[in-house]
Every structure is written in C-alpha cells, then in structure tokens.
Amino acid sequence: MFDLSGKTALVTGSTQGIGFEIAKLLADRGAKVFVSGASSDKKCAKASAKIPNSVPVRADLLNDDDIERLYIETGDVDILVLNASIQYKRHWDEYSAKELDDQLNCNLRSSYFLIKKYVDGMKKKKWGRIVTVGSVNQYNQHPTLSFYAVTKAALFKLVQNIAGDLAPYGITANNVAPGAIDTPRNCDVLGNEELKKQVEQKIPCGYVGTPADVAPSVLFLCSDEARYITGAEILVDGGLHL
Prior knowledge:
43% of the residues lie in helices and 15% in strands. By secondary structure, it is an alpha/beta fold. Strand 5, helix 5 and strand 6 form a beta-alpha-beta unit. Helix 1 (17-28) crosses helix 8. The longest helix is centred in the middle third of the chain and has 29 residues, at 97-125. It is globular, with a radius of gyration of 17 Å. The two termini are 31 Å apart.
C-alpha cells in the first residue's frame, strides 16, 4: 500500500520542516525525490544527504529563470508537491509592496507556473499527482497572517479550478492544509511555553502537530490508492479550523 516505486517527485521547500518530512516519506516509499529550496545549494545538499534516493536542486521561486532551470534539471516528474512559501507576519495594513509581492509570487504565482510546466509530462504518461500545501489560515482569521492566508486560499481555489480539467488524463490535484505545526518557521512562538500554551488551548486535540503528522496525508494523495480523489482538501490541524 502507498508504493511509489518507479515514480519521481519534486517537493518544493523541502530542505526543512514539513517539506523535508514529505520528501523523506515519499522517498521511503520508493520514489526518486528532488529536494528543493531557495537559500543555497549547500542547504539543499545537506537535506538531500539525509534522504536516500534523492537529488538536491536549488531554485528561487521568485525568479522565473530559476523556475525554468528547475524544470530543465529535473525533467518531467510524476508527483509535484508545492510546499514552498513565504510568510510575513504583519497587521493587514502594514505590508510593504515587496512583502505583498513576495508572498503572492512564491505562494501562488510560482505554483501556477510550475503546474503549467510539469503537467504536460503527466498528461503524456496518463498519470500524475499534484499536491499543494495550504494552511489552516484559509479558514481562521489570524491577526498577523492576513495576506498569507489570502495566498493559501487562492492556491486551493486554483486546485479546485484545474482538477476537473486534469482528471481525464489520470492526474489528480489536491490540497493539504496544516494547522499549528512545530517547524523552524514557528519556533519563536512555540519556543515560548506561555505562547505555546495559548496556541494549544485553541486546538481541540490539545497539542501542536509535527511535520510527521502532515506528511502521511500527502503520501496518501500521491498514491494509487487516492486515484479517485481530486479537487479536495485534507485539513491536518487537530481541529484548529473548527
């Protein structure tokens, strides 16, 4: 079950956190995985070294040339997991133009162009899996994540709009929306016991999740066992959206 032997996967934003755990699990289940991040070749190589049957490939998704180069380096893939994102914590009226552009371009625009770039190869094979990584903030109103939430809500709407068009080719497109997860991005808040306690009080399950709580849902959606699921979303948030 959930065997990905013979498949190739690209996981963006996979040098740490949720993306790393997804890449590792897909590789554990037999896929050849491209581990990608924006900051440096060294960081990509360091993460890839911890994942058997993986290849590091750096790409800054704010750069159109890097998106093109990423495709040239990986070639067609069977599985595209769009996890990379940029997040600025600001009150809704405090964002600079660059901060708005960076979040929009990384979280949504690059995903659109990567899907366009990789989907032709999936169509030829009559098999493909596209999984975007959203956020519980699509549903909740967070005081400092308003525009980040907008980009994640738009990403899921993109998934819903393309899923029906791709389904006849054996390609599914789905979204996984994590809640409060213990990742490097959240270390400032979760490293403070009082703030962490405040977060946990909002979660019906009573605790903060880990990347290992998120990755299995992505694995499932990438598998043959999920062939009849498309245009859907799995919330992995301990009930935080409720």
